[in-house]
Backbone:
C-alpha cells in the first residue's frame, strides 16, 4: 500500500535492507556506463593507489541507494517525479564486498504551488557495514496526494 503526501512528516526516517556490492556490480556498471577508469577496473593499478584496491563508481553507489530505497515500497505507487539530486557527496569509497544500506530522512514536506501534489525534501545517507556514511545528499520527490473518496 503506497504512502501519500499526507502520510509523510518532517523527521521521519526510513531504513533499507542491506546489499553487498560485488565485483560483478563494478564490471557490469563499467560496461554499460562506459566508465572504465582504472580506479574501478584495474586491480594492479589500484594496488598502488591510496585505496589499495578497486573502488565502486560513485554513481554506482548512488544507483544502489536509489534501488534500496525503491525496495522499501513507501514511495512506490505515489511517486510522480524525481525533482533533483542536490548536495550529493562521496565521503568514503565503496569497496567490493562492502554491504551498504540507506537511511532516508524526510526533512520537509510542502504542497506544490498548484496544490495538486506534494514535495518531499529527503536526505539520503548510504552507510557501509561499519556504520560509516559513504555517500549522502538530498533527493527531492514529488508525490501524489491521497485520492479523495468517491
Residues:
Amino acid at each position: 500500500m503506497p504512502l501519500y503526501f499526507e502520510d509523510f512528516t518532517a523527521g521521519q526516517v526510513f531504513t533499507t535492507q542491506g546489499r553487498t556490492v560485488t565485483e560483478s556490480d563494478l564490471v557490469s556498471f563499467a560496461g554499460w556506463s562506459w566508465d572504465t577508469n582504472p580506479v574501478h577496473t584495474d586491480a594492479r593499478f589500484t594496488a598502488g593507489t591510496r585505496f589499495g584496491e578497486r573502488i565502486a563508481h560513485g554513481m554506482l553507489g548512488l544507483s544502489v541507494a536509489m534501488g534500496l530505497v525503491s525496495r522499501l515500497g513507501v514511495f512506490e505507487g505515489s511517486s510522480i517525479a524525481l525533482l533533483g539530486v542536490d548536495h550529493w557527496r562521496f565521503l568514503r569509497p565503496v569497496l567490493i564486498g562492502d554491504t551498504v544500506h540507506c537511511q532516508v530522512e524526510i526533512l520537509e514536506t510542502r504542497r506544490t504551488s498548484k496544490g495538486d501534489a506534494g514535495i518531499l525534501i529527503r536526505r539520503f545517507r548510504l552507510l557501509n557495514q561499519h556504520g560509516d556514511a559513504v555517500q549522502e545528499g538530498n533527493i527531492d520527490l514529488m508525490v501524489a496526494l491521497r485520492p479523495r473518496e468517491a
